Amino acid sequence: LLTGATGFLGIHLLAELLDKTEANIYCLIRDKSLEKAQAKIYQKLKTFQLWDEHKSSRIIPVIGDLSQKRLGMCEPDFLELAEQIDVIYHNGAWVNAIYPYSMLKPANVLGTEEILRLACLIKTKPVHFVSTISVFSPSYAQGNLIQESDPLGMNHGLNAGYTQSKWVAEKLIMEARKRGLPITIFRASRIIGHSKTGICNTEDLFCRMIKGCIQLGMIPDFGDSTEDLTPVDYVSGAIVHLA
Ligand SMILES: NC(=O)c1ccc[n+]([C@@H]2O[C@H](COP(=O)([O-])OP(=O)(O)OC[C@H]3O[C@@H](n4cnc5c(N)ncnc54)[C@H](OP(=O)(O)O)[C@@H]3O)[C@@H](O)[C@H]2O)c1
Description:
This protein is of the alpha/beta class. It has one domain (2-242): 3-Layer(aba) Sandwich (Rossmann fold). The protein has 8 helices and 8 strands. The protein has helices at residues 8-20, 34-47, 75-84, 101-120, 138-141, 161-178, 205-216, 232-242, and strands spanning 2-3, 25-29, 59-63, 88-90, 127-132, 183-188, 190-192, 229-231. The longest helix is centred in the middle third of the chain and has 20 residues, at 101-120. It is globular and about 55 Å long.
């Protein structure tokens, strides 16, 4: 099961999973009908030049919403899904730099809780969780190389609701790992366009900032700070390879 397959990273994860595995990929999509959900996935694959007709029969849309109990499914459907799938890539999230924690919590935190519930139901399914390096506050990260083994302590200074929601989601994921669920956490830094086609998410914060700079003919003075940029195909390739 892949969540967030219609998103920027998700569509590249879908293409990578189709390419590197033989598995059927169940994609959790919030839409009204399976036909519309399928059309949405196909359209996204085409937009990002990832479409491959021969692999399309292995894409199985599932209607669901992360912010709802049992992902918005009735109990029999939730149980059936729990039985069908073998592994979960939980990549879906409400990625928003403005809204407060309270608004993002249902999708990002409670959605993760529902994913963990699904992972434990009927048979144990490993969970690969896509997170962000921003769960470490800028004051913690400053001048330090963040190690994978660094504890996710009380991160004072996480001011954005989005990073707070990812921090809490990671804490839930870690608790599940402590209780025996096989878990991997992938913390991406800022994801940019494809290394070969250059196709990027023109709606994200970084693209909008570049666009704003061009329109203004100016750039902000960032001082000494640097941006860590990773091409989307590198991120999706690394996640599937490591998983
Ligand atoms: N982009 C970055 O620079 C970056 C950096 C570090 C980590 N990440 C992480 O990477 C993951 C993907 O990010 P992205 O940039 O690809 O985001 P994105 O383009 O905004 O995609 C988000 C995906 O999540 C889905 N989603 C959101 N709310 C949902 C809900 N309530 N129920 C079901 N699906 C829902 C969206 O579905 P719809 O199509 O229906 O909206 C979409 O498919 C996230 O976990 C994010 O935290 C991203």
